[in-house]
Amino acid sequence: MVLQYGTAGFRTNAKQLDHIMFRMGLLATLRSRKTKATIGVMVTASHNPEEDNGVKLIDPMGEMLTATWEDFATQLANTEQKELLAALKDIINKEAINMKLEAEVFVGKDTRSSSASLSQAVLDGVHALGGQSKDYGLVTTPQLHYMVCCQNSHGQYGEATVEGYCSKLSQAFLALSKNASNRTDDQKHLFVDGANGIGAPKLREVESHLKKQLQISIFNDGSRGKLNHQCGADFVKVQQKPPTGVEISPGDRCCSFDGDADRIVYYYTDSRGFFHLLDGDKIATLISTFLKELLVQVGSQTLRCCCLCCYKEVIVRCTKTGVKHLHHAAQEFDIGVYFEANGHGTVLFSKTAEEKVQLLAKSTNINDERKRAALLLQNTVNVINQTVGDAISDMLLIEAILAIKGMTVQQWDAIYSDLPNRQLKVTVSDRRVIETTDAERRAVSPAGLQEAIDGLVKKYKQARSFVRPSGTEDVVRVYAEADSQESADALAHEVSLAVHRLAGGVGAEPKPL
Ligand code: G16
């Protein structure tokens, strides 16, 4: 079996991963020596089913592994055992790594039953190459990214402990909440679906610092149900319905994390029982609107705010799927808000932007309105985990914005209306036959597929449809939108059929929805 370092590392059935984990321990140790910094290795398969597992490597500033090293990871993962030493030497030579240098690797894991032995395999790999390790045990993926960044910034970003994480985020949230007018207990109430993963226990730790400014009811906390099964952010986004295991009434504000708590989506049902989803696009809109307003109030015309993959009064950019691509695009701006529709995202502030905000927040000769806006911006910077998408941090920011603006989830939803849409998966014998261009919006192979999609799209009003190979599951993803749900469903089905026929579909042809 050939494994590819995909959208977010390696991911497949846990039984096939023991050697991959050991080798990623080796690679992380080399990467640590190369960068002279601490590297992170997170054992998780995020939104995938319980029987899968995976590994994500974290670079020095808490960002995802750089693309050139993804290739080394793929090479090392697929090398025959007898050639492993030669493959390691090859990387050492190509990267001119000094093996006498110290190396340090932080390791974390999610709640999957396979994660304990697989993270031990990572640790074994680190020790085999003489690296030091710190085992954080059960943490969310974004918490491990945060720890790596704290360690390499020598504490400037925060303290590299779970306690340090909880107190930094909650202090910023409490400072933001002071700007909200009095709210009833009902308005402070949030229902959280923990996807039966690591997010639920970690949220409880944060909650204990929140001084009841947020009242959280956690469902799917892992005490009974199965990880990501009929619950979690991916299920809610794709199925467009509430998770099982959550008892909510019309109007209740709810959100779902995914299995390793790096994604979040919000939702509610209305009095007619209709389900309303507030996905990553709506989250990006809420956050970038809030930031734009603060920038106007603070009087800073010089900071450029960019919103990636949403559409409101700010510069818009689209990239290929994967927060690793969005993250780099967002770094080009003073303030970069990036979210994938699936709820994976964060906000980046450039060094210049952070310094300007800090100066303004300290300034004594600006008026009260500007001062208030500057302090809000400063606490917004602190509540955000800038290293990667973080469900807990995003949730705190969203809750603070809604409280400050006195906004209900319905008012947030009304900022704009989504076109009805549908996402489907098609299994093909080799998903790599589908190659794309234009930020994965057009397929260049197999021959005839894009022409077929274009022809189908023309049959519907306000329609678009994209196909691309998933980087985390062995499937092709199909997305379609149109003027009505029936049309979106029909278009998604027709495009799925085209993929099945032209790209080597496996099994029976997809059935209409
Ligand atoms: C990872 C990536 C995301 C991506 C998602 C699904 O998230 O970090 O950027 O959107 O996989 O990717 P794909 O559609 O290619 O399977 P996670 O939360 O699953 O680690």
Question: Would you kindly provide a written description of the structure presented here, covering whatever features stand out?
Answer:
Catalyzes the conversion of GlcNAc-6-P into GlcNAc-1-P during the synthesis of uridine diphosphate/UDP-GlcNAc, a sugar nucleotide critical to multiple glycosylation pathways including protein N- and O-glycosylation. Mg(2+) binds at residues 46, 258, 260, 262. The active site is at 46 (phosphoserine intermediate). Residues 33-75, 100-148 form the Alpha-D-phosphohexomutase alpha/beta/alpha domain. This protein has helices at 18-35, 67-77, 84-94, 115-128, 141-152, 162-177, 199-207, 233-239, 280-298, 323-330, 351-362, 368-383, 391-405, 409-413, 449-458, 485-502, and strands spanning 10-13, 39-43, 52-58, 104-109, 132-138, 189-193, 215-219, 254-257, 264-269, 275-278, 305-308, 315-317, 335-339, 345-349, 421-426, 435-437, 442-445, 464-469, 476-481. By secondary structure, the protein is an alpha/beta fold. It folds into 4 domains: 10-138, Alpha-D-Glucose-1,6-Bisphosphate, subunit A, domain 3 (Alpha-D-Glucose-1,6-Bisphosphate, Chain A, domain 3), CATH 3.40.120; 164-276, Alpha-D-Glucose-1,6-Bisphosphate, Chain A, domain 3 (3-Layer(aba) Sandwich), CATH 3.40.120; 281-413, Alpha-D-Glucose-1,6-Bisphosphate, Chain A, domain 3; 421-502, 2-Layer Sandwich (TATA-Binding Protein), CATH 3.30.310.50. The chain has a 5-stranded mixed sheet with strand order 1-3-2-4-5, sandwiched between helices. The longest helix has 19 residues, at 280-298. Residues 7-8, 46-47, 258, 262-263, 321-323, 340, 342, 344, 470-473, 477 line the site of 1,6-di-O-phosphono-alpha-D-glucopyranose.
